[in-house]
Every structure is written in structure tokens, then in C-alpha cells.
Amino acid sequence: MKILLTSSLIVSFLCSCGKQVTIKRENFPLPEDVEIVQNIEPGVYTKDLVMVTGHGPKTFNSLIIDENSSATAVMYLFSGLVNYDPTNQSFTPALAKSWEISADNLSYKLNLRKGVKWSDGEPFTADDVIFTFDAIFDERYPNRMKSDLIIDGKPLGYRKVDDYTVEFYTSKPYAPFINYIGDVYILPKHKLYESYKDGSFQKQWTLETAINTPAEIVGTGPYCIKEFLPAERIVYKPNPHYWKADINGKRLPYIDALVYKYVSDFNTELALFSTGQTAVSALPARDLPWVSKAAAKYNFSIFERGPSALIAFFWFNMKPGKNEKGEYYVEPYKLKWFQDKRFRQAILHGVNREGIIQATMLGHGEPLNSVISPANKKWYNPNVLKYDYDPQKARTLLEEIGFKINDKGMFEDQFGHPIEFDFLIFEGANNALITGIQENLKNLGVIVNLTYMDFATVIDKTANTFRYECSIMGMGSAGSDTGDPAGSKAIYKSNGRLHLWDPEQKTPATEWEAEIDKLFDLQEQEMDEAKRVALVYKIQEIFSEELPLLFLITPEVFVGISNGWKNIKLASMSIPLWNIDELWRKNK
């Protein structure tokens, strides 16, 4: 079905960035296989939406991105073969309008949308898909996606069936396949093939490209780059060939100019939002009282999105042995403590997480009890072990190991070593949380020495040199952006680089780690989702029993959004305005 827009629309306005911006909407036919979005309120074209982010991108080449600022910048420019709907944690068609899985679960045939064009008007075909995966697996171009697409030690297979059909195949059944395919942005062969061939592919689509010739950055996402000023702002304009429309045949997106301002710190972001200068902002619980007072004056509302998808934890270094200088990674007597799960359980029982929530979050949060956040409803196991604040239980566990209280009121082991450890912390961490842990454990009879270092040094010590005793981290819920646990294989598997307490083991160091390895492999091959979830539940139960990560707090997440926007769909497992192409409001 082909639907034509009936008129050309040119919009000129003074956007919130203070500069006159002209956006021209062109009159191109919708593609044959246009996606007609059904579950939204049809709207009108809207002047602008202004948001804030902390840092500008380092590149616009999606294949080489390895940090969040660039990922945020390109997410509006490109499309994948499948989309993810965070409201119900399901996958939906994107550049692939449908897919079929073979009876043996070893091949996937994806049927591409016909008539889709790149933002420069060139046709999108299976050749672009094959080109993208050729680039991912080319040894000349290291990238973060390749490792996710090596299954059972073998690269993902793929081939072109015809111009609008591609087939992928695996050496064994692989349940997270659609999840991983959805993470790959498809790139335009007609723009990048020559650089791919001559070896300069990774030098393409730099910041200079975005500044001087933004039209050269070609995608199939809802937006193109209108203007990019590093350290100041980026302005996006609608992709005139975008492949989605509403039920009235109006091509999406509705917003004429999507503007991101770059600011130096979160306090500035919050100040801009609370005075009506931007459309959306995350709101820490501690700031709710004063921000709420500005809501009526500046016409915005505050929404609770539920628990955070992030997980926060601290852990003990359990790496045995010595480095090349003959230095122990951890002193043997302390390593013995750390490797005893009763020690780890006692330490967590000694931390008053509820008290910290009351003191630092005004009560808006809950203790975290699993390696998966409760925000990740599909995969979270609510029946894992809980470690309530119980100093007496903590003392009992420590005494069971053989520790005793000395004449100073502190615990020591049978050789007279006090329970004392260095806590390595990156600068900028939540000080109230850290000092709360320190004070709680001091009251228990455990000495915690705080050592602050810059983030890069902390990462080097915990991931490379391993000369530390305890550290703290927060990361996305142990799964990919979709929540699928397969996205965090590096945490779960004993040979993973993010298996923080003892990474990259040649063979599992303990029986419980071997059991997690086994369960993880089984869930990757289990195509029945209910059975797969049950296996992931078992993995979480082992984590909660063994406590290699000592889980901290899940804050409740709040967001402020200016009033009047239609089709807002909040979900705790996504950014607030994840469906930016569907948003609109009446122009003032």
C-alpha cells in the first residue's frame, strides 16, 4: 500500500536554543511496506523538543561506538532489523517486517520492508544488511558487536536470499538471537563501501563530518542531522524517507526539530528543566521537594517510573595468586575471608540499606536482592534470598567462621588480624551511600578504609592489575538494553571479563560458578521462553546464596516532562522518551 503526503510543510521558528531554524518537510511517497503505527493518538507536526545531555559524541560511526554519549547521538539516525518495545519487553518489526525460524532452530529468515529508502533517497536492500555484517566480522575493524555474534565459538552465518530477504544461521539453537540482531544498526553500503574496501572505514562519519557535511551521514532512523556544534548542541531534522506513518498516512516523526543541548553537569540540566527551558529530565528523589514547587509555574508534571533498571553493588577481590612481580593480588589471609560466602553474607547483613534509603533517597527505593533489577519484570526472580539489616545475624556468621571480638570491640581472626579492608571508590560516587556502609560496618566491628581514585584508575585496578581488596560499581541490569540476561554473559560466565570478583578464569574456580556456567549455556539454547526464564531464576538463586556481588539499593526513578505531549509511554527499562518518533503536542 502506498500513501502520499498531501502537502509540503515548511516550518520556521525560534527554537529554544535561541537560533532561527528552518525545517522543510518534503513530499515523498511512503514505502510499499510502510509501518502504520496503530497504538498511538494521531497528531500534528510540532515545532521542537529540547533535551539536555552531559557530553557530546566522539563519533557518528555506529560500528565503533564504545561509550554512551555517541550511542545517544546516533540512536535517532539509524534503524535495526528489529525493534524493542520496553513497555511489554517484546520485539517488534523494524527494517525486517517479519521473520521465520526454522524447525531445527538453527536458521532465521528475515523479510525486509520493500520500498524503504535511506535518508538521501537511495533504496535500502539486503545488500546493506550483508555489508553491515561483513564490516562487523572484518578483522580490520574491531568493534563491540562482534563478540556478541560469535556463538559457541563460531561467527554467526548469514547470506542474501534475494533483494528483500536475508538468512542468518547458527551452529546450535540460540535463544537470544533476535535480541542481538536488534542491537545492530544497519549501515548504507552505497555510502561506506569504498572506505570499507580501502581500510579507512573507521575514519568515516567523524565529528568534522557532522559539522561540515551532515547530509553525508545517512540513515533509516527517524531523524537526520541538521546542525552539530560540539560542546553546544545538536539539532536533528526529520528523515524525509522514514518508514513509519500514523493511521492517517502522516509520515513520522511529528517533531520538526529535535534539539540536544550539552551541559557540564546534572545540576545545570535540572536547573534548565525546572525553569521550563527543556522538555524532560531525570529527577533524583532528593530533589523532588524543590523541583515539585516549580511544576505549576513552568507547566510540567513529575512521573514515577518504578524501580531503576540499574544495579549497584560492591564486591571483594577473590582472585588468587600473584602478579608478574611476585605480589599477591590479595593477601592470603584476607583472600580466605573473602572466599567464604558466610563472610560476604555477614557483611551484607551488617549494612543498613533501608536506613541509607531513608537518609539519601527520602525513602524512595528498596534494597536490591538480585543480579537483575526488579524493573526487569520478565527475568527478575522475586524469591531470591533477602539480606535484611541484622547485626546479630552478621555477628553469628562471623563467629561461625572463627572470628572473635577483641578488647577494642572489633572482630579479628584466629591469628589476630582485625577484619579490615580497603574500599576502592571512584571519585564522584555516592558519598552518603559509601559512608553509610563504612559506619554500619564499624558498628559491627569491621574496619573499612576508603580510598578514592579517578574512574580510569579504578577500572585499571579492578580489570587489569587486580591489586585491590574491595570496590563498588553500578551498571545496567545484568542483561542488555532489552533486559535479556544474554547481554551480560561477561558477568555471569566464569571466563568473562566482567566476572568482577575473579575474571577470565580458565576453568571455573568453584562448583557454584561451574553450575552458573552450565545454566547460562542451557538458557542460551532453550527456545521455550518459560523454561528459559526458569533457568535464569536458578542463576539468580545461586547469586543470592553465594553473594559474589553484594547488592545495594534500587532507587525509584522519577522523570519530569513538560505538559501537553501526546503518546508518552513510560517504561522503567528504557529512556523516558524512547518512542520519540510518535510524540507530538499542539503548537503554541
Helical amount among residues, as a percent range?
Answer: 25-40%
Cα distance spanning the termini: 34 Å
C-alpha Rg, in Å? Answer: 26 Å
Give the mean pLDDT.
Answer: 92
User: Helix segment count?
Assistant: 17
Largest sheet: 5 strands, mixed
Percent of residues in β-strands: 15-25%
Q: What is the number of beta strands?
A: 27
Structural class: alpha+beta
User: In order across it, which strands form the biggest sheet?
Assistant: 24-23-25-19-26
* Model regions low in confidence, pLDDT < 50 over at least 5 residues: 1-18
What is the overall silhouette?
A: globular
Overall description:
The chain has 588 residues and is α+β, with helices and mostly antiparallel strands. 27% of the residues lie in helices and 24% in strands. The chain has a five-stranded mixed beta sheet with strand order 24-23-25-19-26, with helices on both faces. It has a four-stranded mixed beta sheet with strand order 4-16-14-13. α10 packs antiparallel against α12, α11 runs antiparallel to α13 and α16 runs antiparallel to α17. The longest helix has 18 residues. The two termini are 34 Å apart.
